[in-house]
Amino acid sequence: MKKTILLAIIAFACLLQDASAKKIALVIGIDKYVPDTPTGETLTWRNLNGAVRDANAMSNVLKCKYQFDVIKVLDTPEETTTKGLKEAFKWLQSNTSANDVVFFYYAGHGSQVENSRHFEADKTQECIVPSDAYKGKQNYILDTEINAFLLSLTNKKALVTAIFDSCHSGSVSRNAITAETPVTRSLNHKFPDIKTSVPKTIPPATRGALIISAAQNNETASETVNTEGLPQGAFTDAFLQAINASPSVENVATLEKRIRSLLRFNGKVQTPTFEGQEGRMNKALFGENVATSDNPLLFVEKVNSSSGEVKLLGGAALKITKGTTLKNDKGIELEISTLDGMTSSYAKVTSGSLSSIKEGDAFEIKVWAHANHPNLVVYASKSSLSDIQITSIGHDLQSLKGANFTFVKPWEVGTHTLAFNESTSQWIVSNTCGQQKVIPNPNPAVVKKAVSGLVCDGNKSVKLFVNLPLSTDKYKLLEGEFEESATKLSKNSIEASYILGGFYEEGKLKYAWTLQSANAQSEETKTLPTFADPVSVNSQSFKYNLTDQAQKIGTIKKWMTLRSPASMAFPYKLCLQDLDNGSVIDGGKIYEGQNMRLAFQKDPALFARWKKRNMFLYVFMIDNDGQMQLLLPFDFSDNKSDNILEGYEKDVVPVDLEGNYIEFTVEGTGVDKMFVLASEEAIPNPEQLFNVNGVRSTRSGVGGDPLVNLLNSINTNTRGLSMKERKVKAVWSISSVTFESSLR
């Protein structure tokens, strides 16, 4: 019997929407797949135990926690046939209007369908399996059909959230079994090759939808026993625990990490996927606005009372290091003691009680790194002068401008420098030949005389950099911000990678981080930005802009210097294929006008001792402006190495984004560094982690970004088995290649 629940509209609903908008849901749970009358099928059909319970639990949460207006639940064999599901899809489509909040949930079997004409490397399509699938005749619903269904809802300008608790559900489905395995939401069946050309479709997540899947497209989705001793989907159980333990308006990125930590605690190896654009991931489950923190949250995966350690979801990918400290809302503080790969770490309690911590608890980063292990060291000189006095000095010196006397910015090459020596409280004029002169004060006449007396290489033209110090007040502001960050504000300019340079421009006193020339040509840090956008001293966000820029540069530097564990080196590196002559370029010089394709190149020596693990691959680029761009996965495409590298048979494999190659023509000059990160475990929210705005709004030099067309070129009943806890370093590897483009 169909169950449609009508609820009163709650006047104080969290979501801002027009008066006619509603919350509407379609919830499906299928347990019964074995027909009452035996058929001639040779398939090993299995019923499920917990999918209907999942659906009803989800319906209850929608009603009680989220106040949905209309909830249609399908949970009987008669309702969940192929025809019944497709009719329900049409019901949801016809009852959805603009601005509605729409939720779709599926729990049941899933499988993969062979399609030798599919553009994807694995030549399979995922599907969900209706209750009458035993009848054969393609009684399943393909991922392309589900994709079209979800797009029809986003096309109506509805806010869509969809959850699939099924095997292979990273591409929408649940997995296959053998007769020996326990009950699973999957089928021991290989559907026949459908031999159908599949058009490239638009991922619903790129149209504002949030798509949540219980497992990757090559994983099983396991079942568990819930706290009441009843069978339930492991993902749905963790999902319900997570949303009941969190505020109703917790953002999705945080919810994902909370769910993953609970799954790990229960010994489940599946990796749920959350597909949503950055703006959607920063909102709550159904699109509500939430307050966000600049610091990420780490979630407790396991509490080990014997060792006194807490295992956390969050590792090197978040740029945390040994010594990073965390705190929770109970006042308990932790310190990271060991990093375990890209996604996990261990911590010790430094304040509070270990017994008060439980699995799924959230900890916010308090201090990013121990003082002895900063991501970046910077220096800024200070004086006892006020902002007004320092601005006045810069303004008065502008009177020296003339045909042979100009001023340069901190990152530009000059002939002379005027700077304040903090230790002696003196002003000093110096030149590029190493000569210098102490002056009593920085008034124009005194400065001009000192500059004229310091002639270097017979150069009569003066290009003066006036390095204005910070006022004491501004220095204290920065000092306070850096105390709880991964950036160290050093008292010694020699050990600093970046110097804060002050200068006067267009009537304003400005400051900018500038890379020390001694660090500029290091191979490891060659693509670090030479400077960051200047910040006006009168800006309300002065300290926040400068500390944010330093944090970004520190993160980039961390990636530049990150090294793989000695025991693990992924045997494929990035390279470029010259499309005109077929040559492979594995780093170094490339030239304007060359037509390139990004590819993976096998390292035979590393490949010979590699164990062929199926890894998650992430390809990203860092340019001279300090901008990070994620290239793979693109628009939530598959990023497992078995598929991307086509079975590891070829020496050179193009980076394939589900049928699209990354191709571009080299333009202009510059240096860009590309990375391939291989991880045994999926990194949560890679679109947010690797897509980071740079610290410079414009690129200097000729021709702009040498890879400016890079992204634009892309045509546009187990549900699993438990695993014993083991403290073993998670497998991951990172490598990079630098390309320096120049004019021919």
From TrEMBL:
GO terms for cellular component: cytoplasm
GO biological process: proteolysis
Alphabetical list of SUPFAM superfamilies matching this protein: Caspase-like (SSF52129)
Gene Ontology terms for molecular function: cysteine-type endopeptidase activity
Domain DUF4384: 612-681
PANTHER family for this protein: METACASPASE-1, METACASPASE-4
Official protein name in the record: DUF4384 domain-containing protein
Source organism (scientific name): Flammeovirga aprica JL-4
